[in-house]
């Protein structure tokens, strides 16, 4: 604010306009002519140059300088420089004729000079502009292949209008009004001409707003086609005519419907838009208005958007004003068809977004609605009408042209009505006043805008674009986010750091000793090779001493001893310098001798250590390879979690880390377990290790963000969530998690942006999946057609077509289509109800099941497989430009199939992930969004997920209520029945739990976690004494994913059935997978007791006690059998 005050106190800065020269001019009487230039800015004439002679080949050197002062006391001045051009008019001066007092002049052409670079910080720039011919000008007769007339203009200021700091903090808002389509049918292009105005408020400062008016709209008939390249016009062209009313090198760019931000961007609206943009009347503006905003105005705009989101853009029609204002009378500017479009400006507060464009519906203007939606009192219509009238009177004849007040033949009565209507005020009816076209008995509602209501009836919309020079909320770059993540969690080096101090010096000495020792050993072997080969090497002390002397003599005589000392010298010097820090000469001999004695002892000790590493006489026993891999350990840990044996689960996770501490996934899995047991501090350390090992680990970044959010370190959490979206920009999970985080800290606009990005990616994934299915179908059909020939091929094709038709007839009725353009393609869309039973799916084979618990991606993929349906089309809508009227893509647009609806909403995808990783805080938030989402709602999947959430929080009663709701919607949902079984199991209601589990196994489709179902159902059978069923179910669990517990169950069931051999085999399998399970050793002891194997029975019993067997009933049974057989307990 202080800098703004200093700016306002600054002296006015002169803006110099220098017209240098004009080329290729043509006069009325041939190539030679005399001309001058006239320079205007707004309604002010800055001056005229002297006459200059020129020809078609010789340029007219004007070198004319004009200027105006730019004051800084009001931001309106800089705003006007941003959108008002300097008008340069080239005038031919004809020679005087006889008896002529003044010279005659002919207007040759005009051009406009854009002053926008001055607002962008430039101090001097040169422009070469085309001189646009005026009506009746000799320039109109220039052939198309001849050079066009052009002029050189230099714009300069002594000092930049804005400082560097002001350029960084200020902004430039560019508003483009293209056209209004589907206008009311009462608007007649061939009748009386009216002015069509667009107006909206734009902040000038923290407290002031300016009224932006764009008034040069032209009503066009349906058959009046626009050129493909539409050039933008100046909003206030002043005296410009012809081509000079267009902004140089500025065109309206066609964009895809898919990237629009308006209200009519959906597939269901495209047919309507194509029709009205092709076959109905429209109002064309194609106008660009720049608005300079100082820092306080930028802050004001940001605050107002955050408060209301909606920005009012008013549309109105008014009669053409008179050429001049009547003297002595207050001028009236009646307003008709007063409407308003509510533009959602919230996307401008999205990170990195600086542009919104789209089609916005026009509604009848209503004061109460304006106040409610935008918190603004009073409209801008009256002020806009006055400004439009003033702009019209200063405008060029090309804008003024029309038939205002003139009648056409054959339409007199109709024109009279329009004239009468033009004299009446706007039809904002007062209470009790009747509408003119209504029955006299019926009273219109108070303050009803009948004309404006025609916008709603016609579904009128206006195409608007808002562009900022720089985004108000900057988006952090991926490099910056990666740097911030590295600051919070330094990456772990891939290899151990190399030490250069004392430790490295000692290690080098060890290496040199080992190297020299190996060379001495080679000398010994070569010197006594004959004795070694014959095995006649004497071992007496005299013989050993003799060999030592010979070896020493050989080393000294050959010079190798000296070479060995030299090789060892460098490492000894490094020890002296690095370990003892001795780098200077000793002062006396006593100190030197003491140091040498100490060094000698140390070197001898280290020599023995170095030799001991390479000359070991004992063969080391190789470490046996583990019998279980890390994926099995993870499966065992998840199994222990289900059984709530958290100590055993932690042991398995820690064993995985002990095998490989550099695997980020191992740390991540351990961190999710710590979240389950509510050890947030240890979970944070695990996720920190995950990210330090792999900074691109998506799930690790997300979960570390979750932990930081739980601890209310929101700045750090935001960094990690944003970094996750940069690591995988196409991840639905990452964007939705970012949105949930913003939602938790009440940043609604950022949350909306993140959810919008996730929705786009989710739809794109559905389209890609549909393409893959279609490609697979085409490939299958092609292979069937090429498999046979002649009649056999035809018969095969007929059978395939009949089969496809039968499949379509069975499956297609379960799906609905999103309203879109007409198409003959039958594309499978989302089922009519999520709660209907899914199509039957074959149970997966045992070998195809993974040992790991399915991840969220795997679960989603399996759920998508359940609803795959054959498609008879290969045309898939891509992200190409929307079909505009008259374009070559219009016919193709009519054949576009509807975009498939994703089978899972973005929130359900996140819910599945969060339930897997036990992040319950964010899971609750995601479930709330799913309930309110239009594409979600209270479905079976929602209630099942809610039940799982309640179950993890041990809220059993609430979980039961959710499951009851799920089963009401879909009584055949396997997941609901399996979780109901878990619930009954935890409640101790074993009969009901058994019924639920049995019902789950009876379904064709598998439930989510079949292994837990097998184990719990089989344990219930064991408790009930139904050992054969228990054995069969435990065997199913072993086939699916074997573990110590599943094989132990098989062993117990076989033991109870008296099948001791099978029981022993099963218990041995369990012992291999986990040799510290006390129950396994206990039952092995029982089997050995019954098979009269005393030693093995005693050993098994001893190990059972060693690993702390706590099952009192099993211990008592072992003691009873020991008493029966008379052995088995070494204590007696």
TrEMBL record:
<feature type="compositionally biased region" description="Polar residues">
    <location>
        <begin position="868"/>
        <end position="877"/>
    </location>
</feature>
<dbReference type="InterPro" id="IPR011990">
    <property type="entry name" value="TPR-like_helical_dom_sf"/>
</dbReference>
<dbReference type="Pfam" id="PF13432">
    <property type="entry name" value="TPR_16"/>
</dbReference>
<dbReference type="GO" id="GO:0070062">
    <property type="term" value="C:extracellular exosome"/>
</dbReference>
<keyword id="KW-0802">TPR repeat</keyword>
<dbReference type="GO" id="GO:0003341">
    <property type="term" value="P:cilium movement"/>
</dbReference>
<feature type="region of interest" description="Disordered">
    <location>
        <begin position="778"/>
        <end position="850"/>
    </location>
</feature>
<feature type="repeat" description="TPR">
    <location>
        <begin position="1011"/>
        <end position="1044"/>
    </location>
</feature>
<dbReference type="GO" id="GO:0060271">
    <property type="term" value="P:cilium assembly"/>
</dbReference>
<dbReference type="GO" id="GO:0031514">
    <property type="term" value="C:motile cilium"/>
</dbReference>
<dbReference type="InterPro" id="IPR019734">
    <property type="entry name" value="TPR_rpt"/>
</dbReference>
<feature type="region of interest" description="Disordered">
    <location>
        <begin position="868"/>
        <end position="899"/>
    </location>
</feature>
<feature type="compositionally biased region" description="Basic and acidic residues">
    <location>
        <begin position="794"/>
        <end position="808"/>
    </location>
</feature>
<feature type="compositionally biased region" description="Basic and acidic residues">
    <location>
        <begin position="404"/>
        <end position="423"/>
    </location>
</feature>
<dbReference type="InterPro" id="IPR052628">
    <property type="entry name" value="CFAP70"/>
</dbReference>
<feature type="region of interest" description="Disordered">
    <location>
        <begin position="391"/>
        <end position="442"/>
    </location>
</feature>
<protein>
    <recommendedName>
        <fullName>Cilia- and flagella-associated protein 70</fullName>
    </recommendedName>
</protein>
<keyword id="KW-0677">Repeat</keyword>
């Amino acid at each position: 604010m202080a800098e703004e005050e200093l700016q306002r106190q600054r002296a006015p800065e002169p803006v110099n306009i220098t017209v240098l020269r004009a080329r290729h001019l043509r006069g009325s009487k041939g190539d030679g002519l005399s001309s001058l230039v006239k320079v205007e800015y707004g309604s002010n004439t800055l001056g005229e140059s002297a006459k200059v002679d020129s020809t078609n080949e010789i340029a007219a050197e004007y070198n004319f300088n004009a200027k105006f002062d730019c004051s800084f006391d009001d931001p309106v001045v800089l705003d006007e420089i941003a959108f008002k051009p300097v008008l340069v008019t080239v005038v031919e001066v004809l020679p005087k004729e006889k008896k002529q007092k003044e010279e005659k002049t002919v207007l040759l052409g005009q051009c406009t000079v854009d002053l926008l670079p001055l607002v962008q910080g430039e101090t001097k720039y040169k422009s070469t502009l085309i001189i646009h011919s005026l009506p009746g000008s000799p320039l109109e007769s220039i052939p198309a292949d001849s050079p066009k007339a052009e002029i050189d203009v230099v714009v300069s200021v002594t000092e930049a209008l804005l400082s560097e700091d002001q350029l960084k903090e200020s902004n430039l808002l560019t508003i483009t009004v293209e056209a209004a389509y589907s206008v009311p049918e009462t608007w007649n292009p061939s009748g009386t001409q009216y002015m069509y105005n667009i107006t909206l408020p734009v902040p000038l400062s923290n407290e002031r707003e300016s009224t932006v008016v764009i008034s040069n709209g032209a009503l066009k008939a349906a058959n009046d086609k626009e050129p493909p390249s539409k050039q933008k016009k100046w909003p206030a062209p002043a005296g410009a005519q012809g081509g000079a009313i267009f902004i140089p090198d500025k065109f309206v760019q066609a964009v895809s419907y898919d990237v629009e931000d308006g209200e009519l961007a959906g597939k269901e609206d495209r047919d309507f838009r194509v029709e009205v943009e092709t076959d109905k009347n429209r109002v064309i503006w194609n106008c660009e208005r720049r608005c300079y905003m100082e820092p306080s105005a930028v802050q004001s705009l940001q605050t107002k958007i955050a408060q209301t989101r909606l920005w009012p853009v008013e549309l109105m029609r008014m009669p053409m004003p008179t050429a001049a204002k009547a003297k002595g009378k207050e001028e009236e500017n009646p307003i008709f068809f007063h409407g308003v479009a509510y533009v959602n400006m919230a996307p401008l507060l999205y990170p990195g977004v600086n542009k919104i464009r789209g089609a916005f519906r026009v509604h009848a203007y209503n004061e109460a609605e304006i106040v409610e939606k935008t918190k603004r009192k009073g409209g801008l219509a009256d002020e806009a009408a006055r400004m439009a009238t003033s702009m019209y009177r200063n405008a060029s004849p090309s804008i003024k042209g029309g038939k205002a007040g003139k009648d056409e033949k054959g339409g007199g009565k109709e024109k009279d009505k329009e004239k009468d209507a033009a004299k009446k005020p706007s039809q904002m009816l007062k209470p009790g006043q009747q509408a003119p076209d209504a029955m006299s008995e019926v009273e219109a509602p108070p303050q009803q805008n009948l004309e404006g209501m025609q916008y709603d009836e016609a579904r009128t919309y206006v195409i608007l674009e808002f562009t900022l020079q720089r985004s108000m909320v900057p988006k952090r770059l991926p490099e910056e986010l990666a740097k911030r993540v590295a600051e919070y969690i330094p990456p772990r080096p891939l290899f151990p750091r190399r030490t250069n101090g004392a430790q490295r010096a000692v290690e080098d000495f060890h290496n040199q000793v080992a190297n020299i020792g190996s060379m001495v050993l080679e000398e010994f072997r070569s010197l006594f090779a004959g004795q070694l080969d014959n095995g006649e090497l004497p071992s007496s002390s005299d013989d050993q001493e003799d060999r030592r002397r010979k070896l020493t003599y050989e080393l000294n005589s050959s010079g190798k001893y000296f070479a060995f000392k030299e090789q060892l010298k460098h490492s000894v010097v490094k020890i002296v310098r690095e370990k003892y820090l001795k780098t200077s000469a000793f002062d006396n001999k006593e100190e030197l001798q003491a140091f040498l004695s100490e060094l000698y002892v140390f070197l001898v000790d280290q020599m023995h250590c170095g030799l001991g590493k390479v000359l070991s006489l004992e063969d080391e026993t190789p470490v046996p390879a583990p019998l279980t891999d890390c994926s099995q350990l993870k499966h065992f840990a998840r199994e222990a979690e289900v059984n709530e044996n958290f100590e055993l689960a932690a042991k398995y996770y820690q064993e995985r880390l002990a095998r490989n501490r550099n695997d980020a996934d191992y740390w991540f899995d351990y961190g999710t377990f710590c979240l389950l047991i509510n050890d947030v501090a240890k979970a944070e350390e695990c996720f920190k290790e995950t990210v330090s090992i792999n900074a691109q680990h998506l799930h690790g970044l997300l979960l570390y963000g979750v932990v930081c959010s739980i601890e209310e370190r929101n700045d750090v959490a935001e960094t990690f969530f944003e970094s996750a979206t940069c690591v995988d920009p196409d991840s639905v999970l990452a964007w939705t998690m970012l949105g949930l985080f913003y939602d938790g800290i009440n940043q609604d606009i950022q949350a909306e942006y993140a959810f919008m990005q996730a929705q786009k990616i989710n739809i794109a994934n559905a389209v890609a999946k549909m393409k893959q299915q279609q490609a697979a179908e085409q490939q299958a059909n092609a292979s069937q057609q090429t498999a046979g020939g002649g009649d056999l091929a035809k018969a095969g094709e007929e059978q395939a077509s009949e089969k496809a038709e039968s499949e379509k007839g069975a499956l297609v009725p379960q799906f609905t289509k999103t309203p879109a353009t007409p198409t003959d393609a039958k594309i499978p869309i989302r089922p009519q109800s999520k709660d209907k039973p899914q199509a039957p799916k074959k149970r997966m084979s045992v070998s195809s099941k993974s040992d790991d618990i399915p991840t969220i991606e795997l679960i989603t993929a399996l759920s998508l497989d359940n609803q795959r349906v054959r498609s008879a089309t290969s045309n898939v809508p891509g992200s190409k430009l929307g079909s505009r009227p008259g374009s070559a893509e219009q016919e193709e647009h009519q054949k576009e199939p509807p975009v498939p609806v994703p089978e899972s909403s973005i929130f359900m995808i996140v819910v599945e992930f969060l339930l897997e990783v036990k992040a319950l805080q964010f899971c609750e938030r995601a479930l709330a969004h799913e309930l309110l989402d239009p594409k979600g709602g209270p479905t079976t999947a929602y209630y099942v997920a809610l039940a799982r959430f309640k179950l993890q929080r041990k809220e059993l009663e609430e979980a039961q209520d959710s499951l009851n709701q799920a089963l009401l919607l879909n009584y055949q949902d396997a997941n609901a029945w399996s979780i109901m079984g878990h619930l009954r199991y935890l409640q101790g209601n074993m009969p009901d739990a058994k019924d639920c589990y049995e019902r789950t196994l009876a379904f064709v489709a598998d439930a989510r976690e079949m292994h837990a179902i097998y184990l719990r159902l089989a344990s219930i059978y064991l408790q009930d004494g139904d050992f054969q069923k228990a054995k069969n179910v435990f065997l199913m669990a072993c086939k699916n994913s074997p573990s110590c517990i599943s094989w132990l169950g098989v062993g117990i069931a076989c033991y109870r059935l008296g099948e001791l051999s099978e029981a022993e085999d099963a218990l041995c399998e369990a012992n291999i997978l986990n040799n510290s399970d006390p129950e396994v050793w206990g039952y092995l002891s029982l089997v050995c007791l019954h098979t009269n194997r005393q030693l093995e029975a005693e050993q098994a019993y001893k190990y059972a006690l060693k690993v702390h067997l706590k099952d009192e009933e099993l211990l008592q049974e072992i003691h009873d059998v020991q008493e029966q057989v008379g052995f088995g307990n070494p204590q007696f």
